[in-house]
Amino acid sequence: MEKTFIVSNMKEGLQRIREELGDEAYIIKKEILGENDSMLQHFSGNKIKLTATDQSLDDIPKIKKKDISVNTNSTACFEKNDLVSNLYSQLDDIKNMLSCLSGKDNKDIESPEDVFEFGSKDLNNFYRRMVENDITEILAGKFIHGLSKTDVNVVPEEHLREQLSNLINFKDLDTEYNVYVFTGEAGSGKTSTISKLAITLKLRYNLNILNISFDTYKEAGFYQLDSHCKVVNIKSIKVHDSDELIKIVEENRKIYDLIFIDTPGFELDEEHSTSFIPTELKCKKILVLDSNGRYRELKEKVDFFEKIGFDGYSFTKIDETFSYGNIYNILSYNNKPLVCFAHGQEIPASLIKDKEKAIDIILKGLC
Ligand SMILES: Nc1nc2c(ncn2[C@@H]2O[C@H](COP(=O)(O)OP(=O)(O)O)[C@@H](O)[C@H]2O)c(=O)[nH]1
Ligand SMILES: [Mg+2]
Q1: Residues in contact with ligand 1 (CB, 6 Å cut-off)
Q2: Ligand 1, closest atom to CA 192?
Q3: What percentage of the chain's residues is helix, strand, coil (to nearest 5)?
Q4: Rounded-to-integer distance, Cα 244 and Cα 233, Å
Q5: DSSP state letter for 337
């Protein structure tokens, strides 16, 4: 038999149910009478409507056994089960309320699994690995979407290798344009990179290289450059202002295969830094970026040096970074190529000038 009771509280309800339906009775429905059911009203003494039955458990399809595995002899447990299910429904209300407040319908919030649940498990896992290695969710998502659109048999690592291959261009630097300015923040590794690069190219291709130090802030910068490079007969000279720089470059442009120009370490808050390299100087500019740091910070640096304009990146301190994803993020940010990178303090050994080796190192850090 099923019966409805209108009571003031659960204690009264349980007592009446036991009296009328016996000790084996169960509550199958509970409603708080009044306005909408809210937590506040639950505790404010509104009337409660209880529907109970003395049928056996197996005959009650709506109620899961585990939810009401106690009988009315145990009043405390009876109330607890009821309260728990009530709390769950209150939690649902709160969740809905919060999503309304945030202006989003729950259904619109997609987790990575939802986005790619139509793809393979491998793709999902690869996406996660990319994100765990600090590749932005947007770029990782684009990558996986691109992959799922192309060929189902493409291995994600290979696709990433191909993409990196398009983002890295080490060749340009060796030949075509022969005046290179290295710019970047103080301590990013400009002077070390020039030393490594000049010595490597001299030893590997016997190129005729001139270094010009335009580091008017740090006297030691010139000696740092000169002391390493003179060992392999690379000349380094120091200039003191833009006019002298332009004069020396023009005098030597045709004599040397390559001219590398070292600059002072700019600070991002120094607006004058952006006009430091004379615009009339025909050169290519390499932004030297310390690969440590968060993507947002790196992007800020890139935006700052974009005011001067630059043609490619040299990442340094790869040996100290845990965040290889940022290299991918930055290279994808404005599609400027990576022209070389350094993974240690050793001069010249820690410079990577071999494209495949560079890709191997980045992939290893990412996958
Ligand atoms: N671990 C590590 N240290 C580096 C790397 N490149 C440069 N450094 C160190 O970073 C510091 C600043 O380098 P420096 O070339 O003087 O930077 P600059 O101020 O931009 O010219 C020095 O102590 C370098 O030895 C690198 O790839 N890895
Ligand atoms: Mg320096």
Answers
A1: 184, 186-192, 265, 316-317, 319-320, 342-345, 350
A2: 15
A3: 50, 15, 35
A4: 23
A5: P
| Ligand in nearest proximity to the CA of 221 | 2
Token pair 């009571």 is found at 7
Helix (H) or strand (E) holding 180: strand 179-184
- On whether the CB atoms of residues 62 and 28 are closer than 8 A, the answer is yes
Q: What is the pLDDT of residues 65-108, one digit of tens each?
A: 344 343 444 444 445 556 666 666 666 666 655 655 555 444 44
- Would you list the domain boundaries of the chain? 2-101, 110-154, 166-366
Q: Which CATH architecture has domain 166-366?
A: 3-Layer(aba) Sandwich (3.40)
Full-model pTM: 0.68
Mean pLDDT in each 10-residue stretch from start to end of the chain (367 residues)? 84 85 81 55 60 69 41 44 65 61 48 52 84 91 80 80 86 68 91 94 91 80 92 94 92 93 77 69 92 90 89 92 89 88 91 87 82
Picking from 267, 268, 189, 197, the residue whose alpha carbon sits closest to that of residue 228 is 197
